[in-house]
Amino acid sequence: MQIGSAVWTGLTVMTMLLLAQLDMGCCGMTLNSIPLHPASLRPLRTSVGASLQRHKRNWVWNQFFVLEEYTGDDPLYVGKLHSDVDKGEGKVKYVLNGEGASSIFTIDENTGDIHATKRLDREEQPYYTLRAQARDRATNLPVEPESEFVIKVQDINDNEPKFLDGPYNAQVPEMSPVGTSVVEVKATDADDPTYGNSARVVYSILEGQPYFSVEPKTGIVRTALPNMDREARDQYLLVIQAKDMVGQMGGLSGTTSVTVTLTDVNDNPPQSYQFAVPESLPVASVVAKIKALDSDIGPNAEMDYRIIEGDGLGVFRVVPDKDTQEGVIILQKNLDFEKKSSYTLKIEASNRNIDPRFLSQGPFSDTAMVRLTVENVDEPPIFSPLSKMVVSEAAKVGTIIGTVSALDPDSTNSPIRYSIDRNTDLERFFNIESTTGVISTAKPLDREANAVHNITILAIESLDPSQVGKGAALITVMDINDNAPVFAIEYETILCESAGPGQVIETISAVDKDEPPSGHRFVFSLTAETAGNMNFTLRDNKDNTASILTKRGGFQRREQAMYRLPVLIVDSGTPALSSTNTLSIRVCDCDLDGTPQSCGTEAFMLSAGLSTGALIAILACIIILLVLVLLIVTMRRRKKEPLILDEDRDVRENIVRYDDEGGGEEDTEAFDMVALRNLNAVRDSKARRDVTPEVPTLYCSRPPPYKITPDNGIFREFIWDRLKDADVDPSAPPYDSLQTYAFEGSGSVAESLSSLDSLSTDSEQNYDYLSDWGPRFRKLADLYGHSDSNI
To answer: What transmembrane ranges does the database entry give (predicted)?
Structure first.
């Protein structure tokens, strides 16, 4: 070994002792400090007074510290190993063994540089013990003994304080003095307590002032106000925070809750009122009435009431009843049994009219404690906060997606049954287990059809099915590559006959219904069958587009008017999907600017199977159909309007009222009354006089007179004849109508005595004999007798 020397100033005696120990045969060294200046990597020499001679140590390296949670992209440099045997000629290589060698720490076998390749966590492992050795590169034999060293993971503040015993419950007697100890909270921090302030915690109170305080260093919670009355308020909820970095900005924090209950002491006389209040009582309702006793009468007994203390301030108010002098307690806000089940009020009653002469005998007031207990009303179940659920599009039927939970807020704590509101899941994609609330798939999902499902979950109390709670579950369907790419649009590619070789005639792109996280990447190519065609080629532009180019010139639409080019499109999904899309290219005659003037339309149509003669035949058929339609419309317009034009004039359903005066004898000229009654009257088929018939009268012959038949046959024959007349009458309404006839039989020996027969123009009967019947028939003789002598 060689002996060297160097001058070091400022070294302590401890340093010399350390060097002396090294002289005694130590072959390696680790410095407990930050990495030294590169000058310290050279062989050490010392001179303090006289030169100290020692064997030169074989190894020189820095003390190694690695910062935890390093997030850089490059490996983290840890330190450098160097042996004095290494003269820089490349004959020595460095080997690293031990904890994390190769998997976490790597060494450059040429330079001895150590790097960390993974992010380290001090809380998982605070240090690593490794062994280093220098070997001859040619023989792989050790040139130095193996030496052990430690790489220590340096802590950063990456853990917040945690209250392992929280939340806390504590009790303290009411009316306790200020500073009374209530409970001690303790937070722990997983960071290194020996390094920096990462694990130094201070405590503070976030909620609970001004009633309580907490000591910053010890975490002891103490009372901060005197005379806290349990009857006014018996429970307090505190929120305590623990923050590391001694509470400085940038420190991490954790919180816990402390529920403090005031225990009772005997500080009230046995005078109070107890009332029960239904939870569902509406606002402004009377809750209770109290009355203070006063021996006076009249105005001297009038009282005022007011609430002076209690946890019901703002929830209740008290007003006096002028007639009874009672204090009426009225509800001001809605009650909730689950939030607060009881209220305590301290009410004061005082005389309204006080006589100054007796003030010394006062006070003229008294107080009473009123305790109001809220009666529970059954309420529907309440859901726990629902988290967003995620399911893969490829999930099989029955795959569990997540779980929902609901509780009965009432004291009965009824079991809950779950179901899905099918109005929010019409296609029944999901099922839910009725007792556990586990949601699973019931049908295959398609993200492209519906990416998000917002379903309503019903929670029903088993003991009271009328109590139903509702919660919303948001289910997101994650995409898989299950759709092949296709053309973005339907391309109509035009190829000019004047196009030359290598000309871009179309730029195509693709779309895919899938949505990969890294975006789409499409690859375009021609199919294997058309890759060697002599007309067109394809160039992938590497930007999800491709260009279609001509391979030759001299395209003629007379030779071929349409080309179909299959294009293969492949996406970048896993697994990759592809589709073949056909690009139609039409050959056109273009002007100098490349604008198409005429294309191979006729050739395209002929290739589709329709000839010119077929088109002419189709056109002729269409024209003939149009002519027939016009003729039918014209004939219908020439027909007369129907008898009844308006449904409102339907005689079957409406009564038409006229205020006109009757025409007397003129009415008989409009209607032939004889035809209604006389069997032997001429039964000519007559058209209605109020409307013009559409066709001429069909029957003009005179039917024979009715025969005298036994029983009711004469009436039957009369009705059938009238029915036939109505059936053949073209002016009759086109629907069933009520026909009314007045008919007189012909069975009398004296025949008919109806005067209607005299109205008939065909009647030749002589009534002169009436004048011979006496004065009773003289009037009839004057009416129906012959009066030719008077003409």
So the answer is: 604-633
